[in-house]
């Protein structure tokens, strides 16, 4: 079997069109456009590129972008004060604080300061609690993007065996909850999991989010499985800069029925789901009916 390649970029472009189409009616009812604020503390070059590309996409879709790039020495009090100012700013529907934050800042304290209705990253304990208890709320962009691709690829996921490798707050844990909500039987694997290969071999759906390049080997993949690769490790291979996934892609191609590439799979979805969550938050805050765009 040769796997189909899941084109995250193409799905994200389609979602972009559906998002853009909601904006004229929103503007007619509210007199404004949806707005997204992104905060970056410190000058990690990769993070700066993401923040700028988020800003560019936000404007391309016809929304307002507010970018705050602060020096690495910014204090926690100052950062929380900025979040509170953005909470109070009606032009801002979504607030994303780029993680990780410098060591002298307590991430949870900052995330808790975000108004849960503007928590487009789904990181606030209120959002996490809503996801676990199946109430409506904002869901982290990367896992929601993975679920959109899986639903598009497979339709109903009920009864499928899924494994998530990685248990981060931003990706692994919410991914497990989303798959459970979609009626999968979910295995959460991580660095202490024993016999990982055997557990992966049982899975119809594999979501690799461990952040270790190439750790999932081709012969671990059950023939016909669907593979979502969240890994993005920057490396230099044969003198060229490369972005590497967590899955041995070449070997997986021979076993999986479908697989996301890196780049061009989950990455473009993450940014577009951020836009999606921003228009959802905007509609919710304006008291407009809930949107269903996927
Ligand atoms: N609070 C928070 N939320 C985040 O969502 C968040 C964060 N912090 N910190 C940093 C990571 C990283 N991240 C990516 C977004 C897009 C691509 C992306 O578009 N990748 C392209 C390739 C881009 C390239 O070549 O560098 C792709 O996979 O095709 C990757 C990574 C979001 N993050």
From TrEMBL:
<dbReference type="Pfam" id="PF00763">
    <property type="entry name" value="THF_DHG_CYH"/>
</dbReference>
<dbReference type="GO" id="GO:0005829">
    <property type="term" value="C:cytosol"/>
</dbReference>
<feature type="binding site">
    <location>
        <position position="232"/>
    </location>
    <ligand>
        <name>NADP(+)</name>
    </ligand>
</feature>
<keyword id="KW-0028">Amino-acid biosynthesis</keyword>
<dbReference type="GO" id="GO:0035999">
    <property type="term" value="P:tetrahydrofolate interconversion"/>
</dbReference>
<keyword id="KW-0521">NADP</keyword>
<dbReference type="GO" id="GO:0004488">
    <property type="term" value="F:methylenetetrahydrofolate dehydrogenase (NADP+) activity"/>
</dbReference>
<dbReference type="GO" id="GO:0006164">
    <property type="term" value="P:purine nucleotide biosynthetic process"/>
</dbReference>
<keyword id="KW-0658">Purine biosynthesis</keyword>
<dbReference type="Pfam" id="PF02882">
    <property type="entry name" value="THF_DHG_CYH_C"/>
</dbReference>
<keyword id="KW-0560">Oxidoreductase</keyword>
<dbReference type="InterPro" id="IPR036291">
    <property type="entry name" value="NAD(P)-bd_dom_sf"/>
</dbReference>
<keyword id="KW-0378">Hydrolase</keyword>
<dbReference type="GO" id="GO:0009086">
    <property type="term" value="P:methionine biosynthetic process"/>
</dbReference>
<keyword id="KW-0511">Multifunctional enzyme</keyword>
<keyword id="KW-0486">Methionine biosynthesis</keyword>
<feature type="domain" description="Tetrahydrofolate dehydrogenase/cyclohydrolase catalytic">
    <location>
        <begin position="6"/>
        <end position="121"/>
    </location>
</feature>
<dbReference type="InterPro" id="IPR020630">
    <property type="entry name" value="THF_DH/CycHdrlase_cat_dom"/>
</dbReference>
<feature type="domain" description="Tetrahydrofolate dehydrogenase/cyclohydrolase NAD(P)-binding">
    <location>
        <begin position="140"/>
        <end position="284"/>
    </location>
</feature>
<keyword id="KW-0368">Histidine biosynthesis</keyword>
<dbReference type="InterPro" id="IPR020867">
    <property type="entry name" value="THF_DH/CycHdrlase_CS"/>
</dbReference>
<dbReference type="InterPro" id="IPR046346">
    <property type="entry name" value="Aminoacid_DH-like_N_sf"/>
</dbReference>
<comment type="similarity">
    <text>Belongs to the tetrahydrofolate dehydrogenase/cyclohydrolase family.</text>
</comment>
<protein>
    <recommendedName>
        <fullName>Bifunctional protein FolD</fullName>
        <ecNumber>1.5.1.5</ecNumber>
        <ecNumber>3.5.4.9</ecNumber>
    </recommendedName>
</protein>
<dbReference type="GO" id="GO:0000105">
    <property type="term" value="P:L-histidine biosynthetic process"/>
</dbReference>
<comment type="pathway">
    <text>One-carbon metabolism; tetrahydrofolate interconversion.</text>
</comment>
<comment type="function">
    <text>Catalyzes the oxidation of 5,10-methylenetetrahydrofolate to 5,10-methenyltetrahydrofolate and then the hydrolysis of 5,10-methenyltetrahydrofolate to 10-formyltetrahydrofolate.</text>
</comment>
<dbReference type="InterPro" id="IPR000672">
    <property type="entry name" value="THF_DH/CycHdrlase"/>
</dbReference>
<dbReference type="InterPro" id="IPR020631">
    <property type="entry name" value="THF_DH/CycHdrlase_NAD-bd_dom"/>
</dbReference>
<feature type="binding site">
    <location>
        <begin position="166"/>
        <end position="168"/>
    </location>
    <ligand>
        <name>NADP(+)</name>
    </ligand>
</feature>
<keyword id="KW-0554">One-carbon metabolism</keyword>
<comment type="subunit">
    <text>Homodimer.</text>
</comment>
<dbReference type="GO" id="GO:0004477">
    <property type="term" value="F:methenyltetrahydrofolate cyclohydrolase activity"/>
</dbReference>
């Amino acid at each position: 079997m040769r796997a189909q390649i899941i084109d995250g970029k193409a799905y994200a472009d389609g979602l972009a069109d559906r998002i853009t189409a909601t904006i004229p009616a929103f503007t007619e009812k509210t007199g404004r456009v949806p707005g997204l604020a992104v905060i970056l503390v410190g000058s990690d070059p990769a993070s700066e590129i993401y923040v700028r590309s988020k800003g560019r996409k936000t404007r391309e879709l016809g929304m307002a972008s507010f970018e705050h790039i602060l020096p690495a020495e910014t204090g926690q009090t100052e950062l929380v004060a900025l979040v509170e100012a953005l909470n109070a700013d009606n032009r801002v529907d979504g607030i994303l604080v780029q993680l990780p934050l410098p060591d002298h800042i307590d991430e949870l304290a900052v995330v808790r300061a975000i108004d849960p209705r503007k928590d487009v990253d789904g990181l606030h304990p209120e959002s996490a609690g809503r996801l676990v208890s199946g109430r409506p709320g904002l869901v982290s962009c990367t896992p929601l993007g993975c679920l959109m691709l899986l639903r598009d690829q497979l339709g109903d996921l009920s009864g499928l065996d899924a494994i998530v490798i990685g248990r981060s707050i931003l990706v692994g844990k919410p991914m497990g909850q989303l798959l459970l909500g979609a009626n999968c039987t979910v295995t959460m694997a991580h660095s202490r999991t024993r016999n990982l290969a055997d557990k992966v071999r049982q899975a119809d759906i594999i979501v690799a989010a461990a952040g270790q390049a190439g750790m999932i080997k081709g012969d671990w993949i059950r023939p016909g499985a669907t593979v979502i690769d969240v890994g993005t490790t920057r490396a230099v291979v044969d003198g060229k800069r490369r972005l590497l996934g967590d899955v041995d892609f070449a070997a997986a191609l021979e076993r999986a029925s479908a697989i996301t590439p890196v780049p061009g799979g989950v990455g473009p979805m993450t940014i577009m789901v951020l836009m999606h969550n921003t228009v959802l938050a905007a509609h919710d805050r304006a008291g407009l009916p809930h949107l269903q765009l996927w």
